[in-house]
TrEMBL record:
Keywords for the protein's UniProt record, in alphabetical order: Cell inner membrane, Cell membrane, Membrane, Transmembrane, Transmembrane helix, Transport
Protein name: Transporter
Coiled coil: none
Main location group: membrane
Cell compartment(s), UniProt: Cell inner membrane
Keyword field contains Cell inner membrane: yes
Organism per entry: Escherichia coli
Membrane-related topology note: Multi-pass membrane protein
Key word Cytoplasm present: no
Record field: transmembrane: 34-52, 64-85, 97-117
Length: 166
C-alpha cells in the first residue's frame, strides 16, 4: 500500500509543481509533459532526503508551517464569508451519501496518513535509548499530526464549504 502512495505522491508533486510554475509564469509550458521533469524532481527530492533526517525535518517543518499559516490567513481573510447557520444543518440523505462516496478517497488518504509518519517512528527509535520514550514521543507527534489534520478537514468542510450546500 505504501508503494502505491509513493507513486501517487510522485505523480502529484510532479503535476502540481509543473502547474504551479506554469500558472505563475515561471515556465511557458507545462514541465510535467516532459518525462525528464518528473525524474529530475524526484532525484532532487531524494538528494535532499539523503542528506540526512535533520535537513529533511527542517525543510518539512518549514513547508508544513507555511501551509498552516496560509490556511490560517485564508481563514481569517474569509471571516466575512462564514455562514454559521450551516454548522448544524445536515444535507438531505441522498446528497449526504453522494458526498460521502465522493470524499471516500480523501478519507482513506487521511487514514493512511499514519504510514507516512513511520520514518519518524524509526528516527525516534534510533535516537532514543529507551523504546518507551521513543514510543511516547512518536505517539505524541502522531496525535498532534492527526489533531491538525482533523481541525484542518473540519475547518474546510464546515466553514469554507458551508455556503455551497455540500
Amino acid at each position: 500500500m505504501l508503494v502505491i502512495w509513493m507513486f501517487v505522491y510522485s505523480t502529484a508533486i510532479t503535476n502540481d509543481s509543473a502547474s504551479y510554475l506554469h500558472t505563475f509564469g515561471v515556465t511557458e509550458g507545462l514541465l510535467s509533459d516532459s518525462p525528464f521533469y518528473g525524474l529530475v524532481l524526484i532525484c532532487i527530492l531524494v538528494a535532499i532526503s539523503s542528506r540526512g533526517e535533520k535537513l529533511l525535518f527542517k525543510i518539512s517543518t518549514g513547508m508544513v508551517l507555511t501551509k498552516l499559516l496560509v490556511v490560517a490567513a485564508l481563514g481569517v481573510s474569509m471571516v466575512g464569508m462564514w455562514h454559521l447557520y450551516n454548522v448544524g444543518s445536515l444535507p438531505p440523505l441522498g446528497l449526504l451519501m453522494k458526498n460521502a462516496i465522493i470524499t471516500l478517497p480523501f478519507t482513506l488518504t487521511s487514514i493512511l496518513f499514519i504510514q507516512t509518519l513511520s520514518p519518524m517512528v524509526i528516527s525516534y527509535r534510533s535516537r532514543e535509548k529507551s523504546i518507551e520514550v521513543a514510543r511516547h514521543k512518536a505517539l505524541r507527534a502522531m496525535n498532534i499530526a492527526f489533531g491538525i489534520l482533523l481541525c484542518h478537514r473540519l475547518f474546510l468542510r464546515r466553514v469554507v464549504h458551508a455556503g455551497d450546500g455540500t
